[in-house]
Design brief:
The protein has 156 residues and is mostly helical. The chain folds into two domains: 4-107, Up-down Bundle (Methane Monooxygenase Hydroxylase, Chain G, domain 1); 110-154, no CATH class. It is built from five helices and two strands; from the N terminus they run αααααββ. Strands 1-2 form a two-stranded antiparallel ribbon. Helix 1 runs antiparallel to helix 2.
C-alpha cells in the first residue's frame, strides 16, 4: 500500500507549479492583448475613427480591470460576452446617435473641391465613352456652384 503522505506531497508540488503558471500565463496574454489594442488604437486614430477608438480604449481598460482585480473574479467568465455585446450592440446605438447630430453622412464624406473634380472627370469619361462608341458629341458646359464663385469647364 503506497504511502499517503508522499502522494500528498507530490500533489502539493504539482498544484503549486500550476498556481504559479496560471497567473503568469494570464498576465502574458493580457500584455499581448494590450499591445495589440494599442497598435489598433493607433491605426484607428490615424485614420480618424475617433468614436470607435474611444470605445476600444474603454473596452481595453475594462478587460484589464476585470482580469487584474481579484474581486472581479466572477466577471472574468462573462468578459468575452460583455466585450462582444459592447462592440456589436451598444457601440452601434451610440454611433447612430452621434451621427444623427452631426453632418457626417454619405453626401459629406469629401470636400467640395473633390466633388467638383469627380463630376468633371465623370463628364470627360462620358464624352470619351461617346467617342469610342462612334456617337456624335455636342459641346456642353459644366457649370457648378462652388461657394461664391462659378466653376466652368468646357468639354472637348
Amino acid at each position: 500500500m503506497p504511502d499517503n503522505t508522499s502522494q500528498n506531497i507530490l500533489k502539493t508540488k504539482e498544484t503549486s507549479i500550476t498556481n504559479i503558471w496560471s497567473p503568469l500565463m494570464r498576465l502574458a496574454l493580457l500584455i499581448a492583448t494590450d499591445v495589440a489594442a494599442i497598435w489598433f488604437l493607433n491605426k484607428l486614430v490615424s485614420l480618424g475613427y475617433l468614436p470607435l477608438a474611444a470605445v476600444i480604449l474603454i473596452i481595453t481598460i475594462f478587460v484589464n480591470v476585470v482580469l487584474l482585480l481579484p474581486k472581479a473574479y466572477p466577471i472574468r467568465w462573462m468578459v468575452v460576452g460583455l466585450v462582444l455585446m459592447a462592440l456589436f450592440t451598444i457601440y452601434p446605438i451610440f454611433f447612430t446617435m452621434w451621427v444623427s447630430f452631426t453632418n457626417y453622412g454619405e453626401g459629406h464624406l469629401i470636400t467640395q473641391e473633390q466633388a467638383a473634380e469627380q463630376i468633371l472627370k465623370r463628364n470627360i469619361a462620358q464624352k470619351l465613352e461617346g467617342l469610342t462608341h462612334g456617337q456624335p458629341l455636342s459641346p456642353r458646359m459644366v457649370i457648378m456652384h462652388s461657394g461664391f464663385r462659378m466653376l466652368r469647364a468646357m468639354d472637348i
